[in-house]
């Protein structure tokens, strides 16, 4: 990857690489934009190669910029991708060392960065980081659960315009990835009577969830999920779950899930040409961010997501434009307008 070119294309401000050998810290911190305020960066931890860590940091931080902008928050977009240490990070003292080390290293980034939780990272991890830097948010919020409820509500709002009814009863939803967020989402969907097909790279997870929900949930291999005939495809994996070449296999009417950046730009274009509605990540997975940034309840944050997605989908329908194009334009417009204001003197 040509890093500067990628940063220029996406409009990034900063990319920082952190390392601390004793704690095993290896992390990539990307700041996409601080136009609206300090960049909120979800911390995610998983086995990563360097290239993918860089790519994810750059892609996700851009999503967070749009997410904060659409949600009306005074924050910018960042991402903190931690490469899982070779010596493991499950034991509490290793975890403490890792996340405190992260906190110490980002202290120098001053007012520009605020860390919170993302995939593979818990509120307890952020609490460790908070011992070293004040620039943290959300350690007392169950972010995946709050986010999942917002995705569920956003999905209903999108279904209202795309499928003609916001009731998900009998609607076929294929969920790719049933970790913290995907599992919580499936529980809401199942309760409403959606017909679920699920898959996970760790098949035991999908099987266990199907058993918990009992009957009527179909578990398939990851490779087969994208071919599954369904109304809604809901990606909830680590990102880029739907490759450009996969788009011609899709048999859904709408893509809407919790995953950050499920599609590349080319993929978004291909989906549009295939006549599939795509509700972008930054519009629908915002409830956790809204809740930690403002302190409002999960229900209120999810209601905000519902109203935002409904507004975007309605505008898209009225103007015969793709949903993701309208969402991006709305986010960009707020950033442009606020960015054009004169800076306060103090
Ligand atoms: N956790 C949060 O607070 C939060 C908030 C907003 C957005 N997100 C985004 O939601 C997504 C899921 O987050 P999470 O917290 O549930 O993570 P998680 O690690 O708990 O779960 C991810 C699950 O997806 C599976 N998976 C990954 N890629 C897959 C693929 N291509 N096919 C099938 N299964 C796949 C993994 O095996 C795992 O079970 C991520 O993209 C994350 O950035 C998370």
Automatic annotation (TrEMBL):
Signal peptide start and end residues: none
GO molecular function per UniProt: nucleotide binding; oxidoreductase activity, acting on the CH-NH2 group of donors, NAD or NADP as acceptor
Domain Glutamate/phenylalanine/leucine/valine/L-tryptophan dehydrogenase C-terminal per the UniProt entry, residue ranges: 141-343
UniProt-annotated binding residues for NAD(+): 177-182
SMART domains referenced in this protein's UniProt entry, alphabetically: ELFV_dehydrog (SM00839)
GO biological-process terms attached to the record: amino acid metabolic process
Pfam family, one: ELFV_dehydrog
Keyword match NAD: yes
Record carries keyword Nucleotide-binding: yes
UniProt entry keywords in alphabetical sequence: NAD, Nucleotide-binding, Oxidoreductase
UniProt cross-references to Gene3D superfamilies, sorted A to Z: Leucine Dehydrogenase, chain A, domain 1, NAD(P)-binding Rossmann-like Domain
Assigned protein family: Belongs to the Glu/Leu/Phe/Val dehydrogenases family.
Full protein name: Branched-chain amino acid dehydrogenase
Organism: Deinococcus ruber
Lineage: Bacteria, Thermotogati, Deinococcota, Deinococci, Deinococcales
């Amino acid at each position: 990857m040509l890093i500067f070119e990628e940063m220029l294309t996406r409009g990034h401000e900063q990319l920082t690489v952190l390392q601390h050998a004793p704690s095993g810290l290896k992390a990539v911190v990307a700041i996409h934009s601080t136009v609206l305020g300090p960049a909120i960066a979800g911390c995610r931890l998983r086995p990563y190669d360097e290239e993918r860590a860089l790519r994810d940091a750059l892609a996700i931080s851009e999503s967070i910029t749009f997410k904060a902008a659409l949600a009306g928050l005074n924050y910018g977009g960042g991402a903190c991708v931690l490469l899982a240490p070779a010596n493991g990070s499950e034991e509490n003292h290793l975890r403490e060392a890792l996340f405190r080390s992260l906190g110490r290293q980002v202290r120098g980034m001053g007012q520009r960065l605020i860390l919170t939780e993302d995939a593979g990272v818990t509120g307890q991890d952020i609490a460790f980081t908070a011992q070293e830097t004040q620039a943290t948010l959300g350690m007392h919020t169950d972010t995946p659960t709050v986010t999942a409820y917002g995705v569920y509500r956003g999905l209903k709002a999108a279904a209202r315009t795309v499928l003609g009814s916001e009731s998900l009863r009998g609607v076929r939803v294929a969920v790719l990835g049933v970790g913290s967020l995907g599992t919580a989402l499936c529980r809401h969907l199942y309760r409403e009577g959606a017909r679920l097909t699920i898959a996970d790279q760790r098949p035991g997870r999908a099987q266990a969830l199907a058993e918990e929900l009992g009957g009527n949930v179909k578990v398939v291999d990851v490779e087969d999920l994208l071919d599954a005939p369904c109304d809604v495809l809901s990606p909830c994996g680590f990102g880029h779950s739907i490759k450009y070449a996969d788009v011609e296999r899709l048999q859904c009417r709408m893509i809407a899930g919790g995953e950050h950046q499920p599609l590349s730009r080319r993929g978004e274009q291909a989906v549009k040409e295939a006549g599939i509605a795509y509700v972008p990540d930054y519009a629908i997975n915002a409830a956790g961010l809204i809740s930690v940034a403002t302190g409002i309840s999960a229900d209120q944050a999810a209601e905000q997501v519902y109203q935002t997605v409904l507004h975007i989908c309605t505008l898209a329908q009225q103007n015969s434009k793709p949903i993701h194009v309208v969402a991006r334009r709305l986010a960009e417009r707020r950033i442009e307008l606020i960015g054009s204001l004169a800076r306060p003197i103090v």
